[in-house]
Structures are given as C-alpha cells and as structure tokens.
Citrate synthase (Promicromonospora citrea), 371 residues
Amino acid sequence: MTETTEIRKGLAGVVADTSAISKVNPETNSLLYRGYPVQDLAARKSFEEVAYLLWHGELPTPAQLAEQTAVERVHRELPDNVRDAVLELPTDCHPMDVCRTAVSILGAHDPQAEDSSPEAELAKALRLWAVLPAVVALDQRRRRGQELVPPREDLGYSANFLWMTFGEEAEPAVVKAFEASMVLYAEHSFNASTFTARVITSTLADLHSAVTGAIGALKGPLHGGANEAVQATFEEIGSADRAEAWLEDALASKKKIMGFGHRVYKNGDSRVPTMRAVLGDLAEHYGRTEVLDLYETLENAMVSRKNIKPNLDYPAGPAYHLIGFDTNIFTPLFVASRVTGWTAHVMEQRAANSLIRPVCEYVGPEQREVP
Ligand SMILES: CC(=O)SCCNC(=O)CCNC(=O)[C@H](O)C(C)(C)COP(=O)(O)OP(=O)(O)OC[C@H]1O[C@@H](n2cnc3c(N)ncnc32)[C@H](O)[C@@H]1OP(=O)(O)O
Ligand SMILES: O=C([O-])CC(=O)C(=O)O
C-alpha cells in the first residue's frame, strides 16, 4: 500500500457490487423494491406478495401467489426437534440468540441444505420464512410461561404470526399495522446484515449459514437491535416533558441516541413517514396517544440539537410495544421480515458470485526476528 491509499472505514460509500433487488436513494429519500416504491407496496400489497416480488423480481399473479401461500402455510409449524432444541435454551439469553440457533438447527436438518440450485435455494428461503414466526412466537410465549399456540392455516402470514404469539385473533387494524411493518423491514440493499449474508454466500457456503450470520449482524444496536433500544429509551424517559432534559444529558455523556441517524440517508429515512403513520394508527387504536407526544418531542429535540433524523427503528419500536410484543422480541420480528431480503440477496450473490475479500493496510510492527 502507498501513502495515498484511501481507506474507507466501515466501507462507507464503497460500491461493492450491483444489485437488482432494491434501490435506496438518499437524494430523493426513496426506497424501491424491484422498482416499486415501498410505501405503495406497504399500502396496497400483502407481505406475502412482497416476499414473492423480492425473490422473483415481479409481483405474483393470483395463481403464483396461491402456490406460494400453500407452501408457506404447510411449513408454519416448527419441527419437533427444533422446537425441543429451542425449549432447551435458557430463558435469559437474548431472543436473537434463539433465532440464530433455530436457523442453524433448521439448516442442519434441511434435506436440501447443501443443494444450492436456484430451485433448492428458493424452496429453502420459503420454508425458512414460513417457520420463523413460530420460532419468535414460541420464544415470547415460553419466556412468559405460556403454552405454545399452533399455527392456523386459515389465516394470512401476519394474522397467523399474531395468533401464534398472543393466542387470540388480532383485530384487523392491528394485523394491517403489523403487516406494513413487515413490508417496510423486508429489504434495504447492502446493509450490514445483508452484506454479511452475501459475504458468507460468496464462499459458496449454504443459505442457512448465510442467514445465521446475518442474524448475528442484525442483533447489534447500531443495526436491527436499535428497535429494542428505542423502546428502552422511551421507558427510561417516561413522558414527553422529560424528553429534552434526558436528551441533553445523553448527548453530554456522548451517548448515541438509538433510532436516529443512518449510514446512507442523511436527511431522513424513506420508510419513517409510513411507519410513523402506522404508529399513529396504533396509538389511536389502543388509546395511547401519549406515546406520540414523547415520540414527537424527542424527535424535535434531536433534530434541533443535532439535525439527525429518525430511522425506521424509531417508530417501529413503540409500534411493536403497543401491539404487545416484549421488547427483546422486536429484533427477531425484524429477522422474520428481513429473511426475505437476505435470501433474495443470497440467490443474487450465488448467481454471479465472486469471493468477497477486501484488503487492509497493515499497520503492525515491521518484520522482526523471533527471539
Ligand atoms: C434499520 C437500521 O438498521 S437503521 C440504523 C439503526 N441504528 C441506530 O439507530 C443506532 C444509532 N445510530 C447510529 O449509531 C448511527 O447513526 C449509524 C450507525 C446508524 C450510522 O452511523 P455512521 O454513518 O457511521 O455515522 P457516524 O456514527 O459516524 O455518525 C456521524 C456523526 O453523527 C453522530 N451521530 C450519528 N448518529 C447518532 C445518534 N443516533 N445519536 C447521536 N449522535 C449520532 C455521530 O456521533 C457522529 O458525530 P461526530 O462526527 O461528531 O463524531
Ligand atoms: O441500510 C442500513 O444500513 C440499515 C437499514 O436501514 C436497514 O437494514 O433496514
């Protein structure tokens, strides 16, 4: 390396490959999945249709959707051996550890684990997507000392997810809100967890390994873990009248404010307006509009103090809290959604693979003799 080598810490701004799956445009503050604006997909399409779009590049015809739905509904139940393994895990480990472990075990049992043909990759992606709600729901229930609730084949993906988690049918307004969050979380180009999945795939490792690694990358609070951290912040602050003082203290002690800022968007996150509206609907639905006061006060204070805007995790955290999910389950909800984007990227990477292996500038000691 020469003295003029430019080092891009965190690969910021580095264009590592091409992708046809989604386009994040910070200039226009837009996000397209396969060309479609995400806010329009969230308003008009089901999560099942969006999953199909991400995997296949086009929205499904009714027949294609019916075929995918039939497979998804058959694979909703957690196999006994995976369920038993999950139940063995300590209840004080993080639910992301449970997700990561469950996906790894599912891979070990998958008959097509080592088959990386496009057909097998798609089949594995679909099965994993279908079964993840059962992992998340089981984990929340076992921690609460509740019985497992089996899936229902007569419900759509989101309604069934809520059914398995809470053991009762969710109201349509809640299903709609949850569904929108699943669509918004599904895909976001070369974010850290997706890039992790692509790095793992680039070594020709299997799809379950890529998703297991991606879950590890998503867990951190600088990425997916922020939605949980936002709820913790809200609980620490307590009420809107304390938000400004809390923020002053937090900034004075150089704390990162979770749910704010983004590596790519510098003027707000394209998904926030839609998720903020969803949070507003949920707050009205549950009669909890005081949450919105705190939300707005903290956002306004952060923008006026630092000019840093919220990211998707900021409205998603309190929205999931209102629905009734335990805080430590929020990032696994992100997993259940993002598994669609991750696996679309696994397939795209495999179709035009090159081992991902950057270089670094060595700054350790010069060569020396072993004493
Ligand atoms: C769905 C998602 O994964 S979205 C991301 C979720 N993550 C979070 O919400 C965690 C909080 N946010 C952050 O830590 C950051 O904004 C990141 C990691 C998301 C992006 O960070 P980067 O692009 O690397 O920017 P970086 O962290 O260098 O921040 C640039 C400056 O803004 C400040 N900044 C950025 N975000 C925040 C924040 N949330 N709170 C306080 N200051 C912040 C940094 O301290 C830094 O200030 P400095 O130049 O005075 O040192
Ligand atoms: O793109 C990123 O860096 C993080 C993000 O918003 C996401 O993965 O949804």
